[in-house]
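Subject: mismatched residue count in predicted assembly?

I count 1071 residues in my input, but I want to confirm that the predicted structure covers every chain. Input:
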Amino acid sequence: MMTNGNGKTGPKLTLWEKLYFPEIIHGMSITIRAFFRPKFTRQYPEERWTPPPVFRGRPVLVMEDETKVERCVACGLCARVCPSLAIEVQAAETELDKERYPERFEINMLRCIFCGFCEEVCPEEAIIMSKDFEITFTDPRDAIFGKEKLLIPASHLKDRLEFLKQYR
Amino acid sequence: MPKVTIVEDPVDGKGKTVEVENGTTVIRAAAQAGVEIPHFCWHPGLSVAGNCRMCLVEIEKMPKLAIACATQVSEGMVVHVNSDKAVEARKAILEFILINHPLDCPICDEAGECNLQDYTYSHGPGHSAFEEAKNKKPKRVPLGPNVVYDAERCILCSRCIRFMDEIAKEPTLTFVERGDRVFIDTFPGKDLTNPYSMNVIDLCPVGALTNREYRFKARVWETSSTEGICPGCARGCDVNIWVRNNEILRLTPRHNPEVNNYWICDNGRLNSFRHVNSGERLNSPMIRKDGVLQEAGWDEALAHAADALKPFSKDEIAVLGSAFASVEDNYVLRKFARQVLGTQNIDFFRHEIEGDQDALLIRADKSPNAYGALEVGVAPSKGADVNRIFELIASGKIKALYVMDDDIAATKEREELLAKLDVLIVNHWVSTKTTQLADVVFPSATFAEKFGTYVNFLGRVQLSRPAVSTLEQERVPGRFNMSRLDKFGSAFDKWNKGPRRNVRSSWEIISAIGSLLGGKMRYQSAEKVFDELAQSIPSFKGLSYARLGDRGAPLKKAKEEALVK
Amino acid sequence: MIAIEALIKIVILLLVVLGIVAYLVLLERKVSAYMQDRIGPNRVGPKGLFQPIADILKLILKEMIVPEKANSFIHALAPIISITVAVGALAVIPFGNYIVIGGQKISLMIANVNIGVLYILAMSSLGVYGITLSGWASNSKYSLLGGLRSSAQMISYELSLGLSLIGVFMIDRTLQLDRITMAQSMGLWNIVYQPLGFLVFVTAAFAETNRLPFDLPEAEPELVGGYHTEYSGMRWGLFFLSEYTNMIVSSAVMVSLYFGGWSLPYVNYAAMAPNLAALVQVVTFFAKLGVIIFIFMWVRWTLPRFRYDQLMNVGWKVMLPLAILNLLGTGAVLLAVK
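Triage response: the counts match. Full output below for your records.
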């Protein structure tokens, strides 16, 4: 264990460092250089950013373009894998080939941590992370997104679907 | 008695030697040694079919692998369960079964409790050499009113066929077609309408046979399962109560060789919990004010009930117990009647439907606890019995009646008689004709909401645990079995807001009224009630909740009767 | 006549200083932003220039919450003390030499007291009452600890602050700030004679104004907000104002004592029209002031906070001996030169 001049543990200081003032000047030279560096702040509401496909925005349900039917088969794996228990699925039987569909599919966006596990576990590529990161509400009840907010046509999600194909 | 050695660990080669009876099969001998051999078609409650080949094991001095389910033990036999050959064989069998089994576990309802899924994970090859398209077979075929069949998922183990032949004794199901086109169907002109038909759903090792009602309702891992007792008849079948979001979704049989073995009847499975989820549930104590029943707080209603009973002499009061209530409820009621009210007019209604019974499980007595009610003394030794009580009400001698957990206004006549009473106090879980006539109504807990013991017609005392939480009883670990959602959800989660009813166990309600009337009857829990009655009632001597466990224990008397026989 | 003149000067000075303070807050936010590769407030008005107005409006409109068990009178009094003494110290600062209006010479300082520097030291020491009282009156452990730390810190650094200045007084033989300025305008700035004294003074001034690296009284991680934890709305705003006013005072004293005040070398003011000369002097003064204040901010966004024991160690074991050394050295040199 190293000790400094005060008998407290810490790195051993050289005399130059112990003089203190030279090190202050050193520190101030660092901050003043930062002062004149060009800034790269994005003026957010005016300058918008289109995230790349790797971006994990809010999870959405993919809806087939032609049939307007969700891909989801309500297997509940997303709900099971979700570490923050944000997802609730209620399955029901349908006459379609896929046999079951989500009668109710709700994501509590206050709980969601955008980890993307639901997307990874989904066997149907039915829930994927969109590019939408602008999620606001003024009432906690509005934070529970139902199917009407979650269903997005596949044609709007092309980027991410293409991206996911690489890892299939 | 041959000795067999079961070798589980292929590395050290040391096995466990067990002594079993002549004619025992290897799979049962292994189970005795604590080793589970994977199997699909074999079921301990059914005959041996030996068609799935999953239970192949290597037996020393045998030239080929043998199926553990059909091979009988012989002296000095050494069975290698996990030798290289056996493991390879199991992998091959699983690969074979999976050739035509669809890999749609996410859609399949069995996922999570599927033998094929579990074994594929633990013993499967992890890949398939089979690249061609899978077979198409009929899907969603209703075999009967309650069972739906999916031929693609079926692995043709024939458990369901054997069940209908051997246990239900009504051969209904059979294989049709041959080779890779084979599937299961009912005989022409027959339907799967047997009162035990739904057991084939539990028997099915995969998701081929599904419960029409429970289909797609919930995933297994979202639900909690609790050891309960079916209240549908005097058999008192052991069941698991499956609950999600504080709502009972299904009942499944629980193995108990002394009561129901592996089975349960369809009526018990489908209807015995209806009243728990019913929309007619009472959700608050009620007091009749100005001729109308109005909601009241517990303390107010309890005090009102105590005050209402006070003015009557002991011969003017009668008390009716219930064969639907637990032993504890009936015991507290009897104590209340004898010690607090001092009345001898105590009895309960029988609910026997002559003719609606069979040799397997179903009993004519449609209540779970008639034996228990009698045993704790809910019977008129000197006072009036049920019929006499009604005569006395008619003649105006009995003016106050306490009815626990039963609907007694079955006929118009009785309704009119009940209306004649000065005071009628009723505990019940749903709104009935009796509660509508009552002056004070207490909402009581159903079998699924309380600890309670029930004595079946054989004199077996069985403990039922709470599966549904009430308003006053949080779903806490220790008392309740918890699902993942129960464990990690908060009160603010929408899915955690299943209805919790404002009800109390009948013993709680009655002991509270008894205390208000000066009786010494305060209990902290149903277990404390049971401990007291186990002390004072000879036939319950030596019993406790711990002794009862999951399978129950016979009453002392029942044991003696059995010995005499 | 003199009273009216003083009153007008006070009003003008107050308006100017409070305006400057408001914009100093914006400057501080901008400086910190730029040092952290950010842009800082830029939404209110062009380039964020109306941000101070929005800030002040917000502070004025905000509810002032007084804790239930606080001493409400002292709780209200404390910020008033703080701002009063801070502004009061400005009275003796010479922002320029004089202007001529209607043939009359009007000095560019409010009060020419013959013990000017002592007056400033006295006022800035009084400032500790505002902080200590606010800590005590809030009836909160964090506030109280903040207030106590503040008093301890003030006492520790007041000594070295005063001692470091004595060197300047010995050289210029006066306590009046305008005379000290005048003396420097004729010869070299005092910084040349008193580098060590200046170093001690700067350090002590940082401590006196509760600025980083010595902002122990409001150390956020330890004390939530320190002495002003229980303050909100404009009362909190007053503490804020007084902190920045103190900074102006300290910087102004520094400019006057060590950097020649309003004077510039090689400039012959006598050759200019008197009012033009005054303008140049005022601009010079505020330019120097601005540089010093920028250094204040620069240091704040560079250095981390001292630990409390380090603060005390530096105060008593380093600053005080250095100040005394400086005093003795100056005395010896002056004797030798004489």
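The radius of gyration of chain C is 21 Å. Marking this ticket as 'not a bug'.
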